[in-house]
Amino acid sequence: MTTDTTEVLGGPAGPGENDGAGAGRGAAAGASAPEPADGRHGPRMNLFERAPGVYRAMVALDRAAKEGLDPVLAELVKIRASQLNHCAYCLDMHTKDARAAGEREDRIHLLSAWEEATGYYTEKERAALALTEAVTVLTDGFVPDEVYRRAAAHFDEAELARLISVIVTINSWNRIAVTTRSVPGHYQPPGT
């Protein structure tokens, strides 16, 4: 996400109206929707309307988590977690936010194969992406020590705490968006 944005689940106009892991601007709202006749998945609910306190808490967590982190790095982390979680809504949002923050197209396109994309990502970014994958997938129920040590070598403790918080937050947004079947394609970054 860019520094001015937060996640949104179909919230009203105002701060964060343009971004999030739910039915953001232009997406269908409502308690539920019938399945489209062509077999595509339709939205299930507008979480903001049904649980506004949860929405507000998530927005606050998102803002606090990314504070002090490089916005481009935060977007790379959000895109990678969203790829792993198969969250189309968040992929749409965070690729757009990454572009708006100045990220290059080739780096966005190669992100799913970042380990093989030698020369495209810094060692710090690679450490953040490895940690993102470990936290998102939780292989064998834990984050391997070597992955954590690698990240700790590139981030001071406050930065590392923020990075972990961004990873945890995007995973929560992904799970909300996937579960509620938030519709991608309507999000526009602020100022565009």
Automatic annotation (TrEMBL):
Residues 11-27 have a biased composition (Gly residues). InterPro entries: AhpD-like (IPR029032), AhpD_core (IPR004675), CMD-like (IPR003779). Residues 1-45 are annotated as: Disordered. It comes from the Bacteria. Coiled coil: none annotated. Residues 52-133 form the Carboxymuconolactone decarboxylase-like domain. NCBIfam families: ahpD_dom. This is Carboxymuconolactone decarboxylase family protein. It comes from Streptomyces zingiberis.
